[in-house]
UniProtKB/TrEMBL annotation:
<dbReference type="Pfam" id="PF17653">
    <property type="entry name" value="DUF5522"/>
</dbReference>
<protein>
    <recommendedName>
        <fullName>Cysteine-rich CWC</fullName>
    </recommendedName>
</protein>
<dbReference type="InterPro" id="IPR040807">
    <property type="entry name" value="DUF5522"/>
</dbReference>
Length: 120
């Protein structure tokens, strides 16, 4: 039995569906990296606000990474994602995928292809 709830985003006040919305009994937000928790005073965020908050948190973390720190970064210890998320793992440029630093950090090593956002 799916437990879908309608919630209101604590950031933008938009209504959205939250809860067990798939056959795996997991919410859409479980596709994102588990990198932060909302404060106790805030409720869930809508998909758009959640993605932005997640991206901002990742960008702040990536800004602290040096090639030495990249080898033991916290992205390596997170559960492996089943799919890539546009804006988090990559962006499109001229219809081509450009992988962001977060993607490379999750992979855990340099591939040697001189990637634009390689943190290593």
């Amino acid at each position: 039995m799916n437990a879908i709830k309608t919630k209101v985003c604590s950031n933008c006040q938009t209504a959205f569906s939250c809860g067990d919305i798939s056959k795996e009994n997991k919410c859409w937000c479980n596709d994102f990296p588990p990198i932060f928790t909302l404060s106790e005073s805030a409720d869930c965020l809508c998909p758009s606000c959640f993605k932005k908050a997640c991206s901002d948190k990742i960008d702040d973390y990536v800004a602290t990474i040096t090639p030495q720190k990249a080898l033991t970064n916290k992205a390596l210890s997170l559960p492996k994602a089943e799919k890539l998320i546009e804006g988090i793992d990559y962006y499109l440029e001229d219809e081509k995928f450009v992988f962001k630093s977060w993607f490379h950090l999750k992979r855990g090593s340099c591939c040697g292809n001189k990637c634009r956002h390689c943190p290593y």
